[in-house]
Amino acid sequence: MDVLSRFRVEFYECLYARADALFELIDAVLCKDGPVKTRVEPSLPAEHRRGHGALYQALNAGWIEPARLRRLLGSLPMPRAVDGRIVLAVDVSNWLRPDAETSPDRLFCHIYGRGRSKDQFIPGWPCSFVAVLESGRTSWCRLLDAVRLGPADDAAAVAAAQLREVIQRTITAGHWREGDPDLLIVADAGYDLARLASLLADLPVEVCGRLRSDRVLARDQAPDNAGTRPGRPRMHGAPFSLAKPATWGDAQIETRSETTRYGTATARAWDRLHPRLTRRSAWIEAQSAELPILHGLVVRLTVERLPGGRDPAPLWLWSSRPGADPSHVDQLWQAYLRRFDLEHTFRLLRQTLGWTAPKLREPASAAMWTWLIIVVHTQLWLARSATKDLRRPWERSLPTDKLTPARVRRGLPGHGSAAWRCLRSVARLSCVCALAHTGGPSGAVPSRSGGFRPPEVPGTPSLPGRGGAPRARCPTPAAPWLGG
Fold first, then answer.
1. Angle at CA 244, nearest 5°, toward 239 and 248?
2. Are the CB atoms for 90 and 193 separated by under 8 Å?
3. In 3-state terms, what secondary structure has residue 298?
């Protein structure tokens, strides 16, 4: 709880406008009973001591310093895999806004449908998230960064720049030192894995992701055939088609593992395979340079069964690190399966915390709300070890370390009868001391209408307003999603 208390105090210092209203809004989302379905619902709990008008004004006129908040998120403890390495996951989640015709910077977001030819393209704001994954079967991960994709952005380039900043902050915070295992980055088939590995080649990272089953890779050119034909020597050897078993040959590595959920998992790996790059798409700019040969490891994973009795299809993975051993092959596919924890987090953000519930018009307001939801999720992650399990009568009892994020949020107000109110008091008292040190005046909060003051929450000190001359702040960038 000490880490959570310090995080709340330091997060308040990241609020540069409408700080009190935004801080109370986060507490209201945390302590609300049930999911957040509309933007105005967080104004109903007792933790939100202002009217609903202050909530709207906070989202439209408030400001969070992104660079400072990113450093704060990167300084928190990071979970690690079984082998001690940090596993990062990158993925895109869409905030659909089909009816917001006047909202700028909307893109057509690809939405998967159930069944063949059921996919749709709906206007919205695609957001790229980076999270650090945990080991074992869990629905937890810790969000580190979020960036909105613009109309002219390349998903791989934006993800590479985002990951580069996250990794640099991780190294600066001391979570990775020289001699530690390389950081592992897992991504889905929607990313250009070869380009992602090329853009991050100067960092201590390994890129691993899923390949489509129709991909064709290449082996190295055989040395004895290098000079059999005149002209330029061949760059690529025999093809390796994922859909044609006749082109595979014998696997260099094969492992078998017994799992409780999937039965026997068999992994076969082929070393030193590379994609055949062409001067198209992202590689079209390298007209005067030689296209690189990016060797990697290809893993084919097959399992006995899937939950629900579905027919298991093989899973193909590509890793940017060639020459792996059997233990590393098992770590690759196990880390990739943990990537689905990020999907559980997206569902929590949407269905429980109300990430896409507000109908906001401006992307800046959407950026504000997204950062607030990330802070709410981070506080749930920090408080899960000290939260009581308030289970429903039909739910089975779980140990504290196995609680889901929704059950941690449900138990937070009950646990807050003592400790949670103490955490709120510590944060508010720290803000009062900061205002007193800087000479900030006390009085009514400017966002309150004439004479209205909601009832005080028992056990929490009142926080003076933040009127008068504002503190020196950094200039607000034009694009808050990409600022800082």
1. 55
2. no
3. strand
Distance (Å, whole) CA 138 – CA 437: 44
Buried b (16+ CB within 10 A) or exposed e, 27-49: bbbbbbeeebeebebbbebebbb
Q: Which pTM does this prediction carry?
A: 0.83
Q: How many CA atoms lie within 13 A of 291 on its CB side?
A: 16
Structure tokens at 320: 């940017």
| Parallel/antiparallel/unpaired status of strands 87-96 and 120-133 | antiparallel
Beta strands in 311-395 (DSSP E): 315-319
pLDDT tens, residue by residue, 97-125: 988 888 898 888 888 766 666 778 889 99
For 391-414, the pLDDT digits (tens) are 888 888 888 778 888 888 888 754
Q: Which residue has the tokens 């691993």?
A: 208
Nearest to 202 by CA among 310, 117, 320, 281: 320
Contact 135, 338 (CB under 8 A): yes
Task: Give the span between the Cα atoms of 209 and 8, in whole angstroms.
Answer: 35
CA dihedral sign of residues 351, 352, 353, 359: positive
Q: What pLDDT, on the 0 to 100 scale, is given for residue 443?
A: 43
325's tokens? 């051993």
User: How do residues 220-232 score in pLDDT, each as one tens digit?
Assistant: 887 655 556 666 6
